[in-house]
Amino acid sequence: MRNAYHVEHVRAAEAALMARLPEGTLMQRAAAGLAATCARLLGGVYGRRVVLLVGSGDNGGDALYAGARLARRGARVDAILLNPERAHAGGLAALRAAGGRMTGDPAVIDAADLVVDGITGIGGQGGLRPGAAELAARAAGAQALVVAVDVPSGVDASTGVVEGPAVRADVTVTFGTYKPGLLVDPGASHAGVVELVDIGLGPYLPAEPTVAALQAGDVARLLPELSAETDKYRRGVVGVVAGSDRFPGAAVLTVGGALYGAAGYVRLAAPRRVIDLVLQRWPETVCSEARPGEAGRVQAWVVGPGMGTDEVARDRLAEVLASDVPVLVDADGLTLLGKYFGGRADRSAPTVLTPHAGECARLLGAERADVEARRLEHTRQLAERTGATVLLKGSTTLVADPAGAVRVNPTGTPWLGTAGTGDVLSGLIGSLLAAGLPALDAASVGAYLHGLAGRLAADDAPIAAHDVIDHLPAAWRSVGNDHGPVRDARPCL
Ligand SMILES: NC(=O)C1=CN([C@@H]2O[C@H](COP(=O)(O)OP(=O)(O)OC[C@H]3O[C@@H](n4cnc5c(N)ncnc54)[C@H](OP(=O)(O)O)[C@@H]3O)[C@@H](O)[C@H]2O)[C@@H](O)CC1
Ligand SMILES: [K+]
């Protein structure tokens, strides 16, 4: 698990650790890690041109001490101080002693091999002020690699919100722990590759992170265990209510995602025309024209993709919500939820909602642009308000549960932003719910596998939703299964 903590937790941990160490120790650890990354990126230090952008806080101090280390190894280091009177005194003295120079001329940026962004870190507030914004823009237009110290300046470390101009880094070297703003967009897309330098904060951070990102090993651990005794019934049945005469393809994609999840089989409740189309593609589907409540027992329902928003669809949703099993509501189901159910599910069994930003905005009565800009806040808010686990789709998919846990998905590709991929995701998560995964795990594991399948399918070229289904087995295989290879459960005869 890649854990990220709100700035208030980082500050508390830092204070507790600093109380046990000689003054300046943490900044030296940070600067050493930063300088090592810069040296590696430069592919050698001697004769390289490095420019430091230095704010008046400790973020600037880190940059100055790292610059001093590089200067001692022969780099030509120029520091631009945003506020010369308030720059970190110890860092300044170290840089001077190592042969670094202070300059007021931003033209040095144009000729630099590497720019170190030490304007603001966890102490930054709002978008960059004009002087800092000009330097950031100049660095973005130059050839140099940009390395952000702790957090790209202008990105809110705790939330990923970017309120105005901000640095766009190639690499961010962060200290002690990841920050949510490095994992959640729009901040994440400013951070580039994130490297963590251990400065010893670990034991002083709370057990529960503010935001966590699953890694392959976590997904492997969370996947359901299969054994020789596992049959289709024990693996669970996922029910799908999707598709309509107008949008039959949504059912094909949702069923496809569900078939390649962990459930033993997929039951579809839909109109005849939808069933015919689904059976052509997926003959293994168990289909029924009956209402969901009469279609047979399932361990989880997926309801919504392409089902329409008329009163027939409303009644189907009502039946599914009245069941006592986990339910995932997506697409038209979300519209119906807002229109007829006051935006609330009010169920005792787990409910998962999978809106994109527009659907999330509608359910919250907010603006879509606001949801995009403050993804963490709005995902949490919708989970609190609905009592459901909410997965907000889009760049850096987020999952929040009503108890306050938040996960951010580290996989995915912009190529996934194409019609029907959401239907595949719904089916996949529904299948994981049917196999018994708790809502937060089902949603975040589903997002992980879906994002990975999308990446494998795209390989830097456009994809369609059915390509994602085709690559789900490869995505599963690539994370492995912590419970051992299933094919070895029984000896071959
Ligand atoms: N925590 C740890 O364990 C460790 C932390 N360490 C390091 O300390 C960093 C935190 O240092 P910090 O607290 O001094 O704050 P920091 O990020 O330098 O920013 C404050 C400065 O920014 C300015 N400023 C604010 N907003 C601005 C804006 N929009 N645009 C422009 N300027 C703006 C603000 O100006 P003021 O408001 O005072 O005028 C003030 O000058 C942390 O990120 C890490 O790098 C490591 O050394 C060791 C371990
Ligand atoms: K920075």
TrEMBL record:
InterPro entries: Carbohydrate_kinase_pred_CS (IPR017953), CARKD (IPR000631), Nnr (IPR030677), Ribokinase-like (IPR029056), YjeF_N_dom (IPR004443), YjeF_N_dom_sf (IPR036652)
Cofactor: Mg(2+); K(+)
EC id: 4.2.1.136, 5.1.99.6
Pfam families from the UniProt entry: Carb_kinase (PF01256), YjeF_N (PF03853)
Single GO molecular function: kinase activity
CDD domains: YXKO-related
Protein residues bound to (6S)-NADPHX: 58-62, 121-127, 150, 250, 306, 356, 423
Coiled coil: none
Keywords: ATP-binding, Isomerase, Kinase, Lyase, Metal-binding, Multifunctional enzyme, NAD, NADP, Nucleotide-binding, Potassium, Transferase
Transmembrane segments: none
Residues involved in K(+) binding: 59, 117, 153
Domain YjeF C-terminal residues, every copy: 215-479
Subunit structure: Homotetramer.
NCBIfam families xrefs: yjeF_cterm (TIGR00196), yjeF_nterm (TIGR00197)
Function text: Catalyzes the dehydration of the S-form of NAD(P)HX at the expense of ADP, which is converted to AMP. Together with NAD(P)HX epimerase, which catalyzes the epimerization of the S- and R-forms, the enzyme allows the repair of both epimers of NAD(P)HX, a damaged form of NAD(P)H that is a result of enzymatic or heat-dependent hydration. Catalyzes the epimerization of the S- and R-forms of NAD(P)HX, a damaged form of NAD(P)H that is a result of enzymatic or heat-dependent hydration. This is a prerequisite for the S-specific NAD(P)H-hydrate dehydratase to allow the repair of both epimers of NAD(P)HX.
Similarity-based family: In the C-terminal section; belongs to the NnrD/CARKD family.
Protein name: Bifunctional NAD(P)H-hydrate repair enzyme
Source organism of this protein record: Carbonactinospora thermoautotrophica
